[in-house]
Amino acid sequence: MPAPKSKLPRLSPSRINTFLGCAMKYRFQYVEAVPGLPSEAMVRGSFVHRVLELLLTRERDERTIDASREDFETAKQEFLNRDDFRLLLLSGDDESAFWESSRECLRAYYRIERPTEANIVELEKWVTTPLGEFEIGGFIDRLERDAHGLVVSDYKTSRPKPVHYSTDNFRQLTYYALMCETQLNETPHSVRVYYLGGGKDEFPRDQRVVSQAVTPTTLNEVRDTARRVFGNISTAESSGEFSTNVTKLCEWCDYKEWCPAHGGDLTRAREEGTARVGIRRREAGLPVAP
Ligand code: SF4
Which residues pair with 142 in a beta bridge? Predict the structure, then answer.
Protein backbone atom coordinates (compact mmCIF):
# COMPACT_ATOMS: atom_id res chain seq x y z
CA MET A 1 0.00 0.00 0.00
CA PRO A 2 1.57 3.34 -1.01
CA ALA A 3 1.94 6.13 1.58
CA PRO A 4 -0.53 9.03 1.15
CA LYS A 5 0.88 12.20 -0.41
CA SER A 6 1.85 15.10 1.83
CA LYS A 7 2.48 18.82 1.40
CA LEU A 8 5.26 18.71 4.01
CA PRO A 9 8.60 16.99 3.53
CA ARG A 10 8.34 13.62 5.23
CA LEU A 11 10.76 11.44 7.14
CA SER A 12 10.00 7.83 7.97
CA PRO A 13 11.43 6.17 11.08
CA SER A 14 13.62 3.96 8.87
CA ARG A 15 15.04 7.00 7.02
CA ILE A 16 15.90 8.56 10.37
CA ASN A 17 17.58 5.37 11.54
CA THR A 18 19.55 5.10 8.29
CA PHE A 19 20.82 8.68 8.59
CA LEU A 20 21.75 8.15 12.24
CA GLY A 21 23.65 4.98 11.30
CA CYS A 22 25.58 6.57 8.41
CA ALA A 23 24.83 9.78 6.51
CA MET A 24 26.68 8.48 3.43
CA LYS A 25 24.50 5.38 3.36
CA TYR A 26 21.47 7.68 3.52
CA ARG A 27 22.85 9.52 0.50
CA PHE A 28 23.27 6.31 -1.52
CA GLN A 29 19.82 5.05 -0.59
CA TYR A 30 17.62 8.14 -0.63
CA VAL A 31 19.46 10.95 -2.44
CA GLU A 32 21.19 9.03 -5.23
CA ALA A 33 18.45 6.35 -5.11
CA VAL A 34 20.95 3.65 -6.10
CA PRO A 35 18.88 0.59 -7.04
CA GLY A 36 19.70 -2.42 -4.92
CA LEU A 37 19.03 -6.14 -4.96
CA PRO A 38 16.90 -7.66 -2.22
CA SER A 39 18.54 -10.02 0.24
CA GLU A 40 17.03 -13.34 1.25
CA ALA A 41 16.71 -12.10 4.86
CA MET A 42 14.72 -9.03 3.73
CA VAL A 43 12.33 -11.06 1.59
CA ARG A 44 11.89 -13.68 4.34
CA GLY A 45 11.00 -10.87 6.74
CA SER A 46 8.37 -9.49 4.33
CA PHE A 47 6.97 -12.97 3.72
CA VAL A 48 6.58 -13.80 7.42
CA HIS A 49 4.98 -10.38 8.04
CA ARG A 50 2.50 -11.09 5.25
CA VAL A 51 1.52 -14.54 6.58
CA LEU A 52 0.97 -13.10 10.06
CA GLU A 53 -0.97 -10.17 8.63
CA LEU A 54 -3.33 -12.58 6.82
CA LEU A 55 -3.72 -14.74 9.92
CA LEU A 56 -4.30 -11.91 12.40
CA THR A 57 -6.75 -10.11 10.10
CA ARG A 58 -9.09 -13.06 10.67
CA GLU A 59 -11.56 -13.13 13.56
CA ARG A 60 -9.91 -14.55 16.65
CA ASP A 61 -11.69 -17.91 16.63
CA GLU A 62 -10.78 -18.39 12.95
CA ARG A 63 -7.02 -18.16 13.58
CA THR A 64 -6.53 -21.91 13.56
CA ILE A 65 -3.58 -24.02 12.46
CA ASP A 66 -5.44 -24.91 9.25
CA ALA A 67 -6.06 -21.20 8.64
CA SER A 68 -2.37 -20.43 9.10
CA ARG A 69 -1.45 -23.16 6.59
CA GLU A 70 -3.91 -21.61 4.15
CA ASP A 71 -2.46 -18.13 4.77
CA PHE A 72 1.06 -19.48 4.22
CA GLU A 73 -0.02 -20.86 0.83
CA THR A 74 -1.80 -17.60 -0.09
CA ALA A 75 1.26 -15.55 0.77
CA LYS A 76 3.51 -18.04 -1.06
CA GLN A 77 1.50 -17.64 -4.28
CA GLU A 78 1.77 -13.85 -3.92
CA PHE A 79 5.52 -14.00 -3.38
CA LEU A 80 6.16 -16.39 -6.26
CA ASN A 81 4.94 -13.53 -8.48
CA ARG A 82 6.66 -10.69 -6.65
CA ASP A 83 9.76 -9.07 -8.11
CA ASP A 84 11.71 -9.11 -4.83
CA PHE A 85 11.24 -12.88 -4.44
CA ARG A 86 11.98 -13.61 -8.10
CA LEU A 87 15.15 -11.50 -7.95
CA LEU A 88 16.56 -13.93 -5.38
CA LEU A 89 16.78 -16.52 -8.21
CA LEU A 90 16.00 -19.34 -5.81
CA SER A 91 15.26 -22.78 -7.14
CA GLY A 92 15.33 -26.39 -6.02
CA ASP A 93 16.85 -26.93 -2.57
CA ASP A 94 17.49 -23.21 -2.05
CA GLU A 95 13.85 -22.37 -2.58
CA SER A 96 12.73 -25.22 -0.31
CA ALA A 97 15.14 -23.94 2.36
CA PHE A 98 13.62 -20.44 2.04
CA TRP A 99 10.09 -21.74 2.71
CA GLU A 100 11.31 -23.99 5.51
CA SER A 101 13.17 -21.16 7.25
CA SER A 102 10.00 -19.04 6.97
CA ARG A 103 7.99 -21.88 8.50
CA GLU A 104 10.53 -22.02 11.33
CA CYS A 105 9.92 -18.31 12.07
CA LEU A 106 6.18 -19.00 12.16
CA ARG A 107 6.73 -21.94 14.53
CA ALA A 108 8.68 -19.54 16.76
CA TYR A 109 5.69 -17.18 16.63
CA TYR A 110 3.38 -19.97 17.79
CA ARG A 111 5.73 -20.73 20.67
CA ILE A 112 5.42 -17.17 21.99
CA GLU A 113 1.81 -16.30 21.24
CA ARG A 114 -1.54 -17.97 20.69
CA PRO A 115 -2.99 -16.08 17.72
CA THR A 116 -6.52 -16.60 19.11
CA GLU A 117 -5.47 -14.51 22.13
CA ALA A 118 -3.76 -11.66 20.25
CA ASN A 119 -5.83 -8.53 20.78
CA ILE A 120 -5.11 -6.76 17.51
CA VAL A 121 -6.30 -3.17 17.09
CA GLU A 122 -4.82 -2.47 13.64
CA LEU A 123 -2.37 -4.05 11.20
CA GLU A 124 -0.36 -2.09 8.63
CA LYS A 125 -1.88 1.16 9.86
CA TRP A 126 -0.68 4.43 8.32
CA VAL A 127 0.15 7.08 10.92
CA THR A 128 1.76 10.49 10.68
CA THR A 129 2.42 13.56 12.76
CA PRO A 130 3.65 17.05 11.83
CA LEU A 131 6.78 18.32 13.57
CA GLY A 132 6.94 21.94 12.42
CA GLU A 133 8.32 22.26 8.90
CA PHE A 134 8.26 18.51 8.23
CA GLU A 135 6.32 15.41 9.26
CA ILE A 136 7.13 11.87 10.20
CA GLY A 137 5.00 9.07 8.83
CA GLY A 138 4.92 5.34 8.32
CA PHE A 139 2.98 2.09 8.58
CA ILE A 140 2.69 0.44 11.98
CA ASP A 141 3.05 -3.31 11.49
CA ARG A 142 0.93 -4.20 14.46
CA LEU A 143 -0.98 -2.20 17.05
CA GLU A 144 -2.32 -4.31 19.88
CA ARG A 145 -4.04 -3.76 23.20
CA ASP A 146 -3.15 -5.51 26.44
CA ALA A 147 -4.39 -5.02 29.99
CA HIS A 148 -2.50 -1.71 30.28
CA GLY A 149 -3.44 -0.12 26.95
CA LEU A 150 -2.01 0.17 23.44
CA VAL A 151 1.28 -1.44 22.39
CA VAL A 152 3.14 -0.73 19.13
CA SER A 153 4.83 -3.92 18.03
CA ASP A 154 6.78 -5.47 15.21
CA TYR A 155 8.23 -8.85 14.24
CA LYS A 156 11.89 -9.37 13.45
CA THR A 157 12.91 -12.56 11.71
CA SER A 158 16.45 -12.21 13.04
CA ARG A 159 17.73 -14.03 16.12
CA PRO A 160 16.75 -12.35 19.41
CA LYS A 161 18.87 -9.44 20.55
CA PRO A 162 19.21 -8.56 24.23
CA VAL A 163 17.21 -5.53 25.35
CA HIS A 164 20.30 -3.28 25.44
CA TYR A 165 21.07 -4.12 21.78
CA SER A 166 17.48 -3.50 20.70
CA THR A 167 17.78 0.30 21.01
CA ASP A 168 17.39 0.97 17.27
CA ASN A 169 14.29 -1.21 17.10
CA PHE A 170 12.76 0.46 20.16
CA ARG A 171 13.56 3.95 18.84
CA GLN A 172 11.92 3.13 15.53
CA LEU A 173 8.77 1.87 17.24
CA THR A 174 8.68 4.87 19.60
CA TYR A 175 8.25 7.13 16.54
CA TYR A 176 5.08 5.19 15.83
CA ALA A 177 3.98 5.63 19.46
CA LEU A 178 4.47 9.38 19.00
CA MET A 179 2.36 9.31 15.83
CA CYS A 180 -0.36 7.31 17.62
CA GLU A 181 -0.45 9.91 20.37
CA THR A 182 -1.28 12.62 17.81
CA GLN A 183 -3.48 10.62 15.51
CA LEU A 184 -5.41 8.35 17.88
CA ASN A 185 -5.39 10.61 20.94
CA GLU A 186 -4.04 7.71 22.94
CA THR A 187 -0.42 7.16 23.89
CA PRO A 188 0.75 3.55 23.71
CA HIS A 189 2.27 2.43 27.00
CA SER A 190 4.97 0.25 25.42
CA VAL A 191 6.78 -0.75 22.28
CA ARG A 192 7.49 -4.43 21.73
CA VAL A 193 9.59 -6.58 19.41
CA TYR A 194 8.82 -10.24 18.66
CA TYR A 195 12.04 -11.96 17.54
CA LEU A 196 11.20 -14.98 15.40
CA GLY A 197 14.65 -16.10 14.20
CA GLY A 198 16.98 -18.68 15.71
CA GLY A 199 16.47 -22.38 16.18
CA LYS A 200 13.77 -24.30 17.97
CA ASP A 201 14.09 -24.23 21.76
CA GLU A 202 17.15 -22.01 21.42
CA PHE A 203 15.54 -19.00 23.09
CA PRO A 204 12.92 -18.80 25.84
CA ARG A 205 9.90 -16.54 25.43
CA ASP A 206 11.34 -13.69 27.51
CA GLN A 207 14.29 -13.44 25.09
CA ARG A 208 12.01 -13.50 22.06
CA VAL A 209 9.58 -10.86 23.30
CA VAL A 210 11.26 -7.66 24.46
CA SER A 211 9.51 -4.43 25.40
CA GLN A 212 10.32 -0.90 26.41
CA ALA A 213 7.98 1.50 28.21
CA VAL A 214 6.85 4.61 26.33
CA THR A 215 7.35 7.62 28.60
CA PRO A 216 7.37 11.41 28.14
CA THR A 217 11.17 11.11 28.12
CA THR A 218 11.34 8.51 25.32
CA LEU A 219 8.76 10.47 23.28
CA ASN A 220 10.73 13.70 23.72
CA GLU A 221 13.93 11.91 22.75
CA VAL A 222 12.52 10.70 19.43
CA ARG A 223 10.87 14.08 18.75
CA ASP A 224 14.20 15.86 19.34
CA THR A 225 16.11 13.27 17.32
CA ALA A 226 13.73 13.63 14.37
CA ARG A 227 14.13 17.43 14.42
CA ARG A 228 17.91 17.19 14.66
CA VAL A 229 18.08 14.62 11.83
CA PHE A 230 15.79 16.72 9.60
CA GLY A 231 18.08 19.74 10.16
CA ASN A 232 21.22 17.68 9.49
CA ILE A 233 19.76 16.16 6.32
CA SER A 234 18.82 19.62 5.02
CA THR A 235 22.36 20.88 5.74
CA ALA A 236 23.97 17.84 4.10
CA GLU A 237 21.72 18.13 1.03
CA SER A 238 22.55 21.80 0.52
CA SER A 239 26.28 21.37 1.09
CA GLY A 240 26.53 17.97 -0.64
CA GLU A 241 28.56 16.73 2.31
CA PHE A 242 27.43 13.48 3.85
CA SER A 243 29.75 12.04 6.47
CA THR A 244 30.78 8.39 6.54
CA ASN A 245 30.61 6.21 9.62
CA VAL A 246 33.01 3.31 9.28
CA THR A 247 32.10 0.43 11.58
CA LYS A 248 31.97 -3.34 11.27
CA LEU A 249 28.46 -2.85 9.81
CA CYS A 250 30.16 -1.64 6.59
CA GLU A 251 30.72 -5.34 5.81
CA TRP A 252 26.95 -5.65 5.25
CA CYS A 253 26.46 -2.31 3.53
CA ASP A 254 25.08 -2.59 -0.03
CA TYR A 255 27.05 0.49 -1.08
CA LYS A 256 30.52 -0.37 0.29
CA GLU A 257 32.13 -0.78 -3.14
CA TRP A 258 31.24 2.84 -4.04
CA CYS A 259 31.83 4.31 -0.60
CA PRO A 260 34.59 6.95 -0.45
CA ALA A 261 35.58 5.70 3.02
CA HIS A 262 36.55 2.39 1.37
CA GLY A 263 38.25 3.89 -1.69
CA GLY A 264 35.12 3.72 -3.88
CA ASP A 265 33.77 6.23 -6.40
CA LEU A 266 30.26 7.28 -5.46
CA THR A 267 29.63 8.89 -8.86
CA ARG A 268 29.53 5.39 -10.39
CA ALA A 269 27.01 3.98 -7.91
CA ARG A 270 23.77 4.82 -9.69
CA GLU A 271 24.86 3.64 -13.13
CA GLU A 272 26.52 0.45 -11.90
CA GLY A 273 23.72 -0.31 -9.44
CA THR A 274 21.14 0.12 -12.22
CA ALA A 275 23.12 -2.12 -14.57
CA ARG A 276 23.46 -4.83 -11.91
CA VAL A 277 19.75 -4.81 -11.15
CA GLY A 278 19.01 -4.88 -14.90
CA ILE A 279 21.15 -8.01 -15.36
CA ARG A 280 19.45 -9.74 -12.43
CA ARG A 281 16.00 -8.79 -13.73
CA ARG A 282 16.85 -10.35 -17.09
CA GLU A 283 18.06 -13.52 -15.34
CA ALA A 284 14.80 -13.58 -13.39
CA GLY A 285 12.73 -13.11 -16.58
CA LEU A 286 11.45 -9.72 -15.40
CA PRO A 287 11.03 -6.68 -17.66
CA VAL A 288 13.91 -4.21 -17.64
CA ALA A 289 13.25 -0.47 -17.91
CA PRO A 290 14.63 0.97 -21.18
S1 SF4 B 1 30.28 1.30 3.67
FE2 SF4 B 1 30.09 2.04 5.78
S3 SF4 B 1 30.72 4.19 5.71
FE4 SF4 B 1 30.27 3.55 3.62
S5 SF4 B 1 28.14 4.08 3.24
FE6 SF4 B 1 28.16 1.98 3.96
S7 SF4 B 1 27.87 2.11 6.15
FE8 SF4 B 1 28.50 4.14 5.48
Answer: 123, 153
